[in-house]
Task: inverse folding
């Protein structure tokens, strides 16, 4: 697509990034032709004008290989840019690390796509044939990455779904803009997940506290009927009456209502004592 997408924006930015050394330029050119030309052919096609200009600038004989703009055949009829690069391919194996990374950049430019994080992390390549897929996978492994492969419509794709692997790849090829965007989205997603977990935990805590308070009130009501709260010690009677009067209060809030104010642990101890007294009376659990 030639519109604004994460993949498209990353490719345009990479296509405009200068490559200074001759051997890196050669590795980039060869990679574009290895991964962007169909087997047995010589035509490089792309819908991104910046990528077509990049390849043309890397060719040995630019006058012999002009860029042609042709009408697209797909639904949106977007223009396609073609370069007949016959005689320009030199598929030697890169040995220097910078050359390997230039070939990886070329693979992304020619046959790669990066899914927006909102849809799930996914980076994939659709090389023109199995030989190119095997070459790409080996090149990725030589850089410490762990690519996966799978057949699709008679071709073999190479892909990553792990965000750490994807960011490692983007850093290796110099796709800073895409890398920053991905890390921003990753941080946002992790923050949302953390907030969601905290909210869920707080909701669960509230539910547990409400259930515990309801059970405490039932036991205290049973104790009042069977024993009488007036027969309790003053501290226990105070907590029992406060719990009955304030059913939604936390233990800490009940402690602040006591005179004098007491700690949460003290309130918890007094309620535990009330429950023990009720159970000693030999009563069964309250009916719910």
Result:
């Amino acid at each position: 697509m030639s519109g604004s997408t994460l993949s498209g924006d990353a490719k345009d930015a990479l296509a405009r990034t200068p490559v200074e050394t001759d051997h890196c330029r050669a590795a980039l050119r060869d990679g574009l032709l290895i991964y962007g030309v169909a087997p047995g052919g010589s035509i490089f096609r792309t819908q991104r004008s910046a990528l077509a200009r990049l390849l043309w600038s890397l060719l040995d004989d630019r006058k012999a290989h002009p860029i042609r703009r042709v009408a697209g055949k797909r639904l949106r009829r977007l223009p396609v840019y073609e370069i007949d690069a016959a005689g320009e391919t030199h598929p030697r194996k890169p040995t220097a690390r910078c050359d390997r990374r230039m070939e990886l950049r070329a693979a992304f430019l020619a046959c790669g796509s990066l899914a927006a994080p909102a849809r799930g992390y996914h980076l994939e390549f659709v090389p023109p044939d199995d030989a190119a897929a095997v070459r790409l996978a080996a090149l990725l492994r030589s850089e410490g990455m762990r690519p996966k492969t799978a057949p699709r419509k008679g071709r073999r794709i190479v892909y990553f779904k792990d965000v750490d692997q994807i960011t490692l790849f983007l850093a290796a090829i110099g796709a800073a803009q895409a890398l920053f965007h991905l890390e921003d989205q990753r941080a946002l997603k992790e923050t949302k997940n953390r907030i969601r977990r905290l909210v869920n935990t707080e909701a669960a805590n509230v539910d547990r506290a409400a259930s515990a308070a309801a059970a405490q009130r039932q036991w205290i009501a049973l104790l009042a009927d069977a024993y009488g709260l007036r027969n309790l010690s003053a501290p226990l009677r105070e907590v029992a009456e406060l719990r009955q009067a304030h059913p939604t209060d936390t233990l800490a809030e009940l402690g602040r209502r006591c005179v004098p104010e007491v700690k949460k642990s003290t309130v918890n101890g007094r309620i535990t004592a009330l429950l023990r007294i009720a159970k000693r009376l030999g009563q069964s659990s309250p009916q719910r």
Q: What stands out?
A: The two ends are 63 Å apart (CA to CA). The chain is about 55% helix and 10% strand. The first strand starts at residue 43 and ends at 46.
